[in-house]
Amino acid sequence: MRHPFSEVRPLLWLGIAGMTLAALSGVVAVVHGAIILPEGDLTKSMSFDAAVGIYVLTLALFLPLAEFTPGARRRWIRFVVGLTCFGYAVETIQVLRGIDPRFTRVGGAGDQIAGALFGISALGIMTMFIVLAVKLWRRPLKGPDLLFLLAIRYGSIVTVMGFLSGFWMSALQGRHVGPGGNILPLHALCFHAIQAVPLVALFLSKSNLTDTQAKFWIHLAGLSWLGTCLAVGWQTAMGKPLTQISGIMVTAFGLALLWAICLAKAALSSRMTRQPALAR
Fold first, then answer.
1. What is the pTM of this model?
2. Which domain holds residue 241?
3. What is the 3-state secondary structure (H, E, C) of the chain?
4. Which pLDDT band, with edges at 50, 70 and 90, does 174 fall under?
5. pLDDT in tens, 261-279
6. Together in a domain, 163 and 259
7. Could you tell me if residue 278 is inside a domain?
């Protein structure tokens, strides 16, 4: 019998590769220093490679739920592997050369072309994500995968917002908005939706709550994360730092706390379900 993850093994190795590259960049940063003149910043390549690695590993978990045909699944994986490898290469190599991989101001024509292709590859990765999301959205919310499919719907909506925030940075040729806004926290927060909401579903799938009760908590967790991202995006678009106290940021904090309550409720429900079995 084939292992359930054998079909997505290339994605697993791809995710591990990203984490490895991030670790190697960290070693170089410790030995050499994080800044490589004139523009290289190893903290950026570390965060990019690690974040993309985690993203790919998450997709590997969701791909079996999409019910692609074997041929379509292989093609989808090949596109994701090719695009992601190109992204790893440009981000890591350019930083080690002291060049900003996206918005270089000192690089030559080849560096400019690499930056443009980097943006095109990001568009391709977003397209592959949307293809996967559409397949998952088409599945009816019933059966043993009900809770995960519902959570993934929320996660996919917010993740698309993460891609759009990346294109926002590309349009601005940087991450800064106005005197104090920074798009990068919004970018990261949106992408973590595909872990944050399904994590609640994972705990709830092991609880004794009814489907109706479990769906309520997933809706609440999904809307809370979505609302947090919208509030953070609003503060950023106004050119204000997230550390600046405002009604928007109080709302964002409150919604993030509500998501944490949902996670705690799901975890406690899962734990209470296991206790009778342990007692026996």
1. 0.91
2. 149-273
3. CCCCCHHHHHHHHHHHHHHHHHHHHHHHHHHHCCEECCCEEHHHHHHHHHHHHHHHHHHHHHHHHHCCCHHHHHHHHHHHHHHHHHHHHHHHHHHHCCCCCCCCCCCCHHHHHHHHHHHHHHHHHHHHHHHHHHHHHHCCCCCCCHHHHHHHHHHHHHHHHHHHHHHHHHHHCCCEECCCEEHHHHHHHHHCHHHHHHHHHHHHHCCCCCHHHHHHHHHHHHHHHHHHHHHHHHHHHCCCCCCCCCHHHHHHHHHHHHHHHHHHHHHHHHHHHHHHHHHC
4. confident
5. 999 999 999 887 544 433 3
6. yes
7. no
